[in-house]
Structures are given as structure tokens and as C-alpha cells.
């Protein structure tokens, strides 16, 4: 059989598989909180009202994949009068759009010595994280739990009222998997701090081109990207969508002081700024 025909059949089979997977995932997808759909229609008005309050925020993890995109989204939407980046190194920001950005370099092993960096902010965003492959099991727990929790504690003590945490789909402090267990544990520990408002974002597989991605990760992302082009599912979330959802949700008034946004809600809310 000619190669062209083989490739043609392979393409058809792949397309059908993607469609079938999309339909199945649609049936199994997470429910979306009703208030998000209801209030997103007034997003522009809510953003302007929020902007007039002259609030400030801080961002943890601005050098990471989500953090970089979130910073650009915050600057583009311009809902804060001041943005403070808290991290272990100074980032090279040369664009004029970064004029209202302040950078504070801290030692995460001695965060108590940098309590001042967390004072005076209204909203905190946390995209801080590493991987077990990169940092080992102990290093992963230290970054994704200890650093994150300590930062939240200092932020609460410093007057922060809103805290937005990027977590993961399937986060569960009772899980047998280290990654999901740590994510679930830090979610619970921060909730115990009793912020006036606490939002947890649990995206699916983040659709982003990582330079260090392994072949298996790359294949998974390509397949899920194709599925997402047909239907936004809870299995995957474009990284730009996560950032947009975090900014949009900041100005909304939730029904409860603690809210968990699963991937479907993130996908839908991340598109609301276009309405």
C-alpha cells in the first residue's frame, strides 16, 4: 500500500480517536460553579470598579511557566496599582510596561527574615513549585509545601486578604501519590489560615511548551492540545487560560470564602475576558 494512503488512514484514525475522546471527556467533565458563569458577563465593569480601589498584589513564582504568563496578564489587565514579585532571584524586566512592578529577592530557607516583603498587599498569587525529578522528593515537599505555606502565613500576617493558589487536578492530602498528596496538604494548611478569600485552581495537564519536557510529556501535550481544540476538558488546560482565570476571578464575588476551581471552570472563566 502506498505511503500516502497509509498516512491518510492514520490521520483519519487519529482524528476519530480525538473526537471520541473529546465526547467521552465531555460526559465526565467537572461541574462549573454557577456564580462564575453568571458574574463573568459583567467582568469589564467589575474590573473597572476593582481598579478604582487602588489595590496592590504580590506574585510568587514569576520565573515559572504559569507565573510568567500571569505577570503579563496582570500588566495587560492593569487592575493593580502595584505588583510585587517575590522570588529567589532578580528577573530581567526591561519593558516600560513593568514600571509598576517591584522585585524583592528573598531566601526561601529564611523567609522569616523577609517578612516585610509580604506586608501591605491586598492580594497574593502563588505559582511557586518544582518537580520531584528536578529537586528530589524532599526538595519537592520543601518548595511546594513548606515555602508556599510559609509565604501564605507571612502574607496573612502582613494584611493580605485574598490568596490565589495554583494547585493541580486530583490534589488530595490522603493520596498515595506524593505529588497529589503534597498539593492537597498545602491546600488544606493554607485554608486553615482563614483568609477573607481563598481560591484554589486545579488545572489539568498544563498545555505549554517546556524546553525540558521528556518525549512522553510532549506526546501527551500534543494529543491533549488536539482534544482541547474540539472541547475544553478537565484533563488539560492551556497555561494562558489559567493565568486569565486567576486574574478574572480576582474581581468576582464568590458565594463562599473558600472556592476550588477545577479545570472546566478555569477553562470557561479564562475565556470570559473576551466576552
Describe the structure.
This protein is an alpha/beta fold. The protein has one domain (3-274): 3-Layer(aba) Sandwich (Rossmann fold), CATH 3.40.50.720. Helix content is 47%, strand content 15%. Helix 4 links the parallel strand 1 (56-60) and strand 2. The protein is globular and about 45 Å long. Mean pLDDT is 82; it is low at 14-28 and 210-232.
Task: Chart the SSEs and their pairings.
Layout: H1 3-28, H2 34-40, H3 43-51, E1 56-60, H4 65-77, E2 82-87, E3 101-105, E4 123-126, H5 132-157, E5 162-166, H6 178-191, E6 197-202, E7 205-207, H7 215-230, E8 236-238, H8 239-250, E9 258-262, H9 263-269
Parallel strand pairs: 1-2, 1-4, 2-3, 4-5, 5-6, 6-9, 7-8
Please report which band the strand proportion falls in: under 5%, 5-15%, 15-25%, 25-35%, 35-45% or over 45%.
Answer: 15-25%
Rough outline: globular
Per CATH, the class reads: Alpha Beta
Sketch the topology as an H/E string, one letter per element.
Answer: HHHEHEEEHEHEEHEHEH
CATH topology: Rossmann fold
Task: Report the biggest beta sheet as strand number plus sense, adding barrel if it closes.
Answer: 7 strands, parallel
Question: Stretches where pLDDT falls below 50 for ≥5 residues?
Answer: 14-28, 210-232
Q: Output mean pLDDT.
A: 82
Content-based structural category: alpha/beta
**CATH H level, superfamily name:** NAD(P)-binding Rossmann-like Domain
Rg, rounded, reads 20 Å
> What's the β-strand tally?
9
Number of helices: 9
Biggest sheet, strands in spatial order?
Answer: 3-2-1-4-5-6-9
Q: What is the CATH-assigned architecture?
A: 3-Layer(aba) Sandwich
Amino acid at each position: 500500500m502506498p505511503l500516502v494512503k497509509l498516512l491518510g488512514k492514520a490521520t483519519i484514525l487519529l482524528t476519530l480517536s480525538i473526537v471520541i475522546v473529546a465526547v467521552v471527556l465531555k460526559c465526565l467533565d467537572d461541574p462549573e460553579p454557577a456564580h462564575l458563569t453568571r458574574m463573568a458577563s459583567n467582568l469589564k465593569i467589575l474590573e473597572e470598579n476593582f481598579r478604582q480601589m487602588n489595590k496592590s498584589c504580590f506574585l510568587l513564582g514569576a520565573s515559572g511557566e504559569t507565573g510568567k504568563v500571569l505577570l503579563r496578564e496582570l500588566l495587560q489587565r492593569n487592575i493593580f496599582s502595584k505588583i510585587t514579585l517575590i522570588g529567589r532571584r532578580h528577573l530581567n524586566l526591561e519593558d516600560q510596561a513593568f514600571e509598576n512592578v517591584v522585585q524583592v529577592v528573598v531566601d526561601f530557607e529564611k523567609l522569616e527574615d523577609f517578612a516585610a516583603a509580604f506586608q501591605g498587599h491586598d492580594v497574593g498569587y502563588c505559582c511557586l513549585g518544582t518537580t520531584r525529578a528536578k529537586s528530589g522528593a524532599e526538595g519537592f515537599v520543601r518548595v511546594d509545601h513548606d515555602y508556599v505555606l510559609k509565604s501564605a502565613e507571612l502574607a496573612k500576617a502582613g494584611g493580605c486578604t485574598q490568596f490565589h493558589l495554583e494547585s493541580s487536578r486530583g490534589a488530595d492530602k490522603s493520596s498515595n501519590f506524593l505529588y497529589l498528596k503534597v498539593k492537597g496538604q498545602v491546600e488544606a494548611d493554607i485554608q486553615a489560615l482563614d483568609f477573607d478569600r481563598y481560591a484554589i485552581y486545579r488545572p489539568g495537564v498544563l498545555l505549554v511548551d517546556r524546553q525540558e519536557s521528556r518525549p512522553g510529556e510532549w506526546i501527551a501535550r500534543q494529543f491533549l492540545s488536539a482534544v482541547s481544540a474540539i472541547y475544553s476538558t478537565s484533563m488539560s488546560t492551556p497555561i494562558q487560560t489559567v493565568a486569565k482565570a486567576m486574574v478574572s476571578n480576582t474581581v468576582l464575588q464568590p458565594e463562599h470564602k473558600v472556592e476550588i476551581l477545577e479545570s472546566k471552570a478555569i477553562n470557561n472563566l479564562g475565556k470570559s475576558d473576551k466576552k
